[in-house]
Amino acid sequence: MARQGLRFLVAGLANTALTFTAYQIFLFLVPHQAAYALAWLCGIAFVVVIYPSRVFGKHNPTASSLVRLAMSYVAMFLLGLATLEVLTNAGMSPRIAVVLVLMATTAANFVVGRYLFR
Questions:
Q1: pLDDT tens digit sequence for 57-94
Q2: What is the pTM of this model?
């Protein structure tokens, strides 16, 4: 579990860097809700391609496990979007609020992913 956790953190940092950068760029083009959704789509693609083999050691994941993993990230997206809305409606800058949202969803993503590929 410790190795998986370390691999998850490394892959998660790469995914977070990708999605955070995408979010910040998309904010110049679209409202924060759409920017968040587009960034998460980038992140889901990264997760489905990288996580099963590189993080959880499943080199031949089933299609259903990949779909479940993607759906878990959709659920985390909804949780994150709701959290982002609460924080921005409370007056926090969307550029800062997303950092708290990322922190809130990271641990849940690991637990769900580990469960799916155990």
A1: 777 888 888 888 888 888 888 988 899 999 999 999 99
A2: 0.67
The structure tokens 């949780």 sit at 79
Burial of 44 (0-12, 13-18, 19+ CB in 10 A): buried
Question: Which amino acid, 102?
Answer: L
Total domain count, the chain:
1
Return the closest-CA partner of residue 106 out of 82, 56, 58, 72.
72
Q: Are 77 and 39 in contact (CB under 8 A)?
A: no
Range of the domain at 12: 2-116
φ/ψ of residue 93, rounded to 5: -65, 135
Q: What angle do CA 117, 64, 83 make, to 5 degrees?
A: 70
Q: How far, rounded to the nearest angstrom, does the alpha carbon of residue 94 sit from its chain's CA centroid?
A: 17
